[in-house]
Amino acid sequence: MKTGSKYITLTKRRDIEKKFAEGWSKQEIADYIGMSVRTVYRELQRGKCIQRRKQYDEYGFKGYKYYETYSADIAQGQYEINMTAKGRPLKIGNDYEFVRYMEKRVLKDKIKPRAVLGEIVHNDLPFRTRVSRTTLYRYIRMGLFPHIQMSEKQEDKKKYEHATVKRAPRGTSIEMRPQNIAARNEFGHWEMDCICCDNKAVFLTMAERFTRFVIAFKMESQQACNVVRCLNKLERSFGKDFKRVFKTITVDNGSEFSDCKGLERSIYNKKSMRVKMYYCHPYSAYERGTNERLNREVRRLVPKGTDLTPYTQAEVQAIVKWVNDYPREIFGFATSAERFREELAALGLTA
Known about the structure:
Arc Repressor Mutant, subunit A; Nucleotidyltransferase, domain 5; five-stranded mixed beta sheet; 14 helices; alpha/beta; two-stranded antiparallel ribbon
């Protein structure tokens, strides 16, 4: 039944995308949205695109299958381009400084467009353009940013079930960790993990749960003694204030964290505890979710398979600086570095 509406709205385009993917015929889609079959046919041509899907066989991943489908976002973008040609102005106008800044932060600094948008608002940067996140991504799809494009892909993820071996934690179980740590309402509680590649060299990363601030060290091998050395170095750096900044550290049950006593023991007094260690349940990486999430950001600059051996500690610090200076939506697009400095200042310390 026709509704009398002359134009196809974005909502109707979403309906077309969904029904087309479900295998509905053009006539069925036309009846559903209240448009003619001819209108639906033209709309499918406007939003036509190629997507890919992973293919598996009994031996695992065997490649990609490419197929033609319809994208509501592409159709909407093409529609707006057509409207622009008829004289409808875009919000971005001729604000070339905004375009250049967006492309620099996305391409060179590897910041996501929505984070750049939040950063502009948070720091009140003097651009004429103010657009919403939805409009920004639509403009990218429309091609208004010469060097940025959106990827259109749909992948099926195959799920596997694994048999696991239960074992006792190497130290105090996370079950004994106070609830206020899980609530993230107090500064000074950290998570620790290693980023490994095929060679012996690894990165030891530490993430503070409240501020999402990251500290990292390069280690020549994934041995417990090297992790203890890194904490010793960190304790020397903070001195008597170490306990105020590092109250607890949560780790998994990897062999590199097996020396619980060595990790907890202060270098200044062998009978004194410098930090309380908590150990996750086996195969429960989600219990160190902050560390896992921020390690993925490190991986954006150090992809899997990268040889970590040539990296210097200065280069490692440059990587974590990028992570700590990333505008975070959860903080109103302030950075982890800013939040960390605020917490240190509250303790009477400086970064």
